[in-house]
């Protein structure tokens, strides 16, 4: 049985945060993913959209 959970990532524009976001998107178990970023991360947004995952950036 699979369940979907929300994830909140602080510092998603840094190298560790960026890697974490990619893994969360790849797993498909976290919807939505909410990120707190200093600057928008278009590559993360595009990757999430392609995977069908809702990614919300806040800054």
What does this structure look like?
The chain is of the alpha/beta class. It has a single domain (about 5-59), classed as NAD(P)-binding Rossmann-like Domain (Rossmann fold), CATH 3.40.50.720. It has two helices and three strands, in the order E-H-E-H-E. It has helices spanning about 15-25, 40-50, and strands at about 5-10, 30-35, 55-59. Strands 1-2-3 form a three-stranded parallel β-sheet. Strand 1 (about 5-10), helix 1 (about 15-25) and strand 2 (about 30-35) form a beta-alpha-beta unit. The mean pLDDT is about 90.
What is the number of domains?
A: 1
Uncertain spans? none
Number of strands: 3
Main beta-sheet strand count, sense and barrel state: 3 strands, parallel
What sort of overall outline do the alpha carbons produce when their principal axes are compared?
Answer: globular
> Order of strands in the sheet with the most strands?
1-2-3
Tell me the strand percentage band: 25-35%
What percent of residues adopt helix (DSSP H or I)? 25-40%
CATH architecture descriptor: 3-Layer(aba) Sandwich
Give me the strand/helix succession.
EHEHE
């Amino acid at each position: 049985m699979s369940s979907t959970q929300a994830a909140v990532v602080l510092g998603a524009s840094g190298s560790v945060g960026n890697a974490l976001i990619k893994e969360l998107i790849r797993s498909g178990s976290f919807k939505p993913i909410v990120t707190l970023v200093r600057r928008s991360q278009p590559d993360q947004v595009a990757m999430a959209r392609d995977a069908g995952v809702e990614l919300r950036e806040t800054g």
